[in-house]
């Protein structure tokens, strides 16, 4: 449900072609793409600049996403500083089983902490490309999404007054707990999945125990604690609102896909907005939701498949334990299965 415009203090509302709600990886990337094309936009963020630049989260970035960032002039530091992983390792049956995906496919995973990427994107958007941004906004609301002149409003952190900003399009990039997805509650179909498990992630300042990502699958379990659930909001577009990243879909960190999907969405949305605003071409925006959902569902299915592989053995259900072990063994006995796994793990499928 969207609200009617809030009245602001006497001045006429500001206006931008695009308002981006949320300065996470998705929102900042949309902003950078727009600014590179000379499109004005405003990014509104509830956190401070320091807090978004210091929030540790993801770290594994797919090669196609790195290339997408590079093509848009956003990968300078990443290309210099990120580690390139060539293999992961499964441990099961009391043994180590290295999985050399680089050897198999020529592809890599890039390891670059999300907070570094966000720091690079904030600098690029605000300091280099001159994009407008307000940090620390409160009580964000979106209005009139079904009309030609939507708007957003927020409480200004300094004055406490409600500010209204008019726009042509709203990019909803405010993550899993934002307001843009909530604004279409009741109109969107939200498909949910709960894994029924938890992971406890311990952050330790210590040298890594191995030079690659490890998956230890043991009858006693798999350590972890975080919200292990997924959702997909369909469609990802409502009137003049386009959702991107975690605002549209949450994918549990099982397969390290959330940041990657957020950036894929942002490339598609940023490019489509530029086409619409500069050339009047509607095709990108019209197809945005459908084309993005194909990859979103593919990644959700992969996460579910991988979760069963990690956890099936520790469920106490001998049938699930048997099939999980069969999956693990097949990865190392069938080249076709190994190739299919590598393609999905690295996100290198030609199309979805
Ligand atoms: P967010 O990063 O959540 O950004 C949304 C922004 O909007 C935030 O800055 C927030 O403060 C702001 N905001 C919220 N509400 C409002 C509002 N009302 N108004 C204005 N602004 C608002 N993904 C991977 O691909 N690989 C990994 O290895 C990986 N590991 C992860 C590990 C952990 C512990 C977690 C929690 C996640 C992990 N993910 C991983 C997922 C990944 O971090 C997210 O998918 C990614 O941050 C999504 O980016 P986003 O821009 O859509 O949303």
Description:
It is a single chain. The protein is α/β, with parallel strands linked by helices and 352 residues long. The chain has one domain (14-346): 3-Layer(bba) Sandwich (FAD/NAD(P)-binding domain). It is built from ten helices and 17 strands. The strands form four sheets. Strands 1, 2, 8, 9, 10, 11, 15 and 16 form an eight-stranded mixed sheet that branches. A three-stranded antiparallel sheet has the order 3-7-4. A hairpin with a 7-residue loop joins strand 9 and strand 10 (151-155). Helix 1 (25-36) runs parallel beside helix 6 (114-128) and helix 9 (318-333) packs across helix 10 (335-346). The longest helix has 29 residues, at 283-311. It is globular. It starts with 13 loop residues before the first strand and ends in a 6-residue tail after the last helix. Bound molecules: flavin-adenine dinucleotide. Flavin-adenine dinucleotide binds at residues 21-27, 44-47, 52, 57-60, 114, 140, 173-175, 177-179, 201, 226, 245-247, 253, 256-260, 262.
